[in-house]
Amino acid sequence: MATAMAVRSGGGGGLEKQPIDPGKYVRYTAEQVEALERVYTECPKPSSMRRQQLIRECPILANIEPKQIKVWFQNRRCREKQRKEASRLQAVNRKLTAMNKLLMEENERLQKQVTQLVHENAYMRQQLQNASLANDTSCESVVTTPQNALRDASNPAGLLSIAEETLAEFLSKATGTAVDWVQMPGMKPGPDSIGIVAISHCTSGVAARACGLVSLEPTKIAEILKDRPSWFRDCRSLEVFSMFPAGNGGTIELVYMQTYAPTTLAPARDFWTLRYTIGLEDGSLVVCERSLSGSGGGPNATTAHQFVRAEMLPSGYLIRPCDGGGSIVHIVDHLDLEAWSVPEVLRPLYESSRIVAQKMTIAALRHVRQIAQEINGEVVYTLGRQPAVLRTFSQRLSRGFNDAINGFVDDGWSLMGGDGVEDVVVATNTSKKISAQANSANAFSVSGGVICAKASMLLQNVPPALLVQFLREHRSEWADYNVDAYSAASLKAGSCSFPGLRPLRFSGSQIIMALAHTVENEEFLEVVRLEGQAVTQDEAMVSRDVHLLQLCSGIDENAVGACFQLVFAPIDELFPDDAPLLPSGFRVIPLDMKSEGLASSRTLDLASSLEVGSATNRCAGDTSTNDHSLRSVLTIAFQFPYEVNLQDSVAAMARQYVRSIVSAVQRVSMALSPSRPGLHVGQKLLPGSPEAVTLARWICQSYNYYLGMELLKSDGETGESLLKVLWHHQDAILCCSFKMQPIFTFANQAGLDMLETTLVALQDISLDKIFDESGRKALCSEFAKLMEQGYAYLSAGVCMSGMGRHVSYEQAIAWKVPAEDNSIHCLAFCFVNWSFI
């Protein structure tokens, strides 16, 4: 049992050696404790050798046994652990107390709402009994925009009247029953949640409310939230046109705000509002805001035709200080986004309170919580970057991508002529400077400008999170490495030598290095390294890697977001804080919020998306009856710098490149779309499904049956383990359909490497394309034997990869793969000891 010890700060005492007595305390002098504390600060857990060295170097510890030194450090670590745990429990207790207060207030508000509904119900019953039902039975909110809002807005006294009215209406929404609030689906309150989130039900416009605990002072929170462009990604600009004191300690501001359109299919919005900041008697701080008019008013800019004037009904922030530090924040957003101005298919984006909650209300609360944790040192980032710098990178990527999608005239964008097909829009900007700041030393500009090719498309039955996750993890399925290398070289060298760009090949490897993520993992900032290879031998020693700064949101299984996006920009390997960025990427916005989609645990390996024939019919009856009728809008935008003499060439390349990406995304979407009952034979199957396992079993069983030997050196693996062994087999194993024009439907990893292709592009390769003339003759001569005895050996030869490279192999084996009913399902090939020539 460890010897008990006590520390006494006084008393000189002698330094005679004290015998170790487990029944007594060991007293340390203040000098001894000071010496031990110094060592503990440097090394909380010193080794035995270090403790011996400590005794030798500190004569004041000479009378202490090494074992006692060891026990002292054990007890010191224990006390430190207890102190940290006590501090953590105190913080949790404060948080639970504040959360309990919030829940009690919410319960009180709900009781008032129930009472109000009971009275309204009784009134309606009485009216029905009297056969004099009131004409106005609308369930809309009783809070509406006053009709005389503009009448008094011409003088400060009128503005103060509007401000006081806005304050009263906002408080009735934040803490009262002016709006019929219902809990937002999937956002349950609790000690580990962001807070209490609610959305409006049966009210005019769209509204959302959130309240939570933030460990910052009210003035700091108000300062952060008023800077809307720093946290609201759809905010293009916010300008305060005038500001004056209200006479009661408050401040009135006239604010003009522009917001981005989320897709190329809708116009942007702008707001002309009055913002009122006032402190209340209980110490709370309020920032409330409303539109001065539903339309008209505000700046008369020449670009006003690019925007649709939206209306902000009384909204804002109520920030109340908490006992023991921190604040309770109430956020209300109430908007009328003029849904009539967008195509009918997009109107759910402008009529959903849930989307407003996700894009504005929850985003604001998350942002202040993130900054609070960074200030308190609870968030540590890699690569020595400061949190503010990393947030700026995320904002610049998002803003640059939004600028590309919207293409505002006042930013210098103008449309270019098309080629007769209007699927891709191409715009050019001859005045764009790519830098973090206008006077940045790393500002980048070219003599021509920037070209943006963009397109939007409607997706059906494709889980957005799964699609973005696939695009992130399998870049080689849709991207052209030479285009990435062109953009990277242009930004690095400042010259866009498109015609003279030397051909490169992507090795297929990408390394993702995390930079930062938000507290709840709904957004990631990372650096991606694409490993390239030079085609010629002379350039083999030169690094051809491409680096991208990438922002990814919506793929975390716990993330709840209104859009899922992947935005990236080429950067230098050692990019400075003000590195130039030219973002491109994808944005997927769900139009239907009814379905939760598929679980994010679905694998992204498309190897088993095969044609398995009758097996599909067997699984059709097992498919869930949920039809996952999820619609979403995919927006793609890619930017390319160009020299003035290369504008037409780069524009043609950009248009064709985006078309190829659209085609690749369509193929990926078909593979990721969940199965539905009644699909026809030959439908793509889900990865990891019983059909994929069945095909692996058929391949191995048929090989053993026809050739009398085992294909895999396994220890009796079955099921998914058998498929895994087949996937990692050293020889290239491929399957092609048994049709008039056989195409490849499956390849293991070695087969994909040999063909230099991807799983999605594999279906574009037919059997006759990989053999040269002699190879096709050899296969034809052995085909009769293959059909008769079930297998055939092909002698050593040469075949072609998907990129046109010659591949030699020592031997090839072909055999039939029958299905359960003995019909030929496909032909399998095994290329032994293959290598590139």
UniProtKB/TrEMBL annotation:
Homeobox domain segment(s): 27-83
Keyword annotations of the record: Coiled coil, DNA-binding, Homeobox, Nucleus, Transcription, Transcription regulation
Annotated GO MF terms: DNA binding; DNA-binding transcription factor activity; lipid binding
GO cellular component, one term: nucleus
Key word Cell cycle present: no
Chain spans, region Disordered: 1-21
Domain START: 152-380
SMART domains attached to this UniProt entry: HOX, START
Main location: nucleus
Keyword Heme in annotation: no
Superkingdom as given in the UniProt entry: Eukaryota
DNA-binding region in chain numbering: 29-84
Residues annotated as signal peptide: none
Xref: InterPro entries: HD, HD-Zip_III, Homeodomain-like_sf, MEKHLA, START-like_dom_sf, START_lipid-bd_dom
Location in the cell: Nucleus
Coiled coil: 79-127
Entry function: Probable transcription factor.
Family: Belongs to the HD-ZIP homeobox family. Class III subfamily.
Protein name as annotated: Homeobox-leucine zipper protein HOX9 isoform X1
Organism: Elaeis guineensis var. tenera (Oil palm)
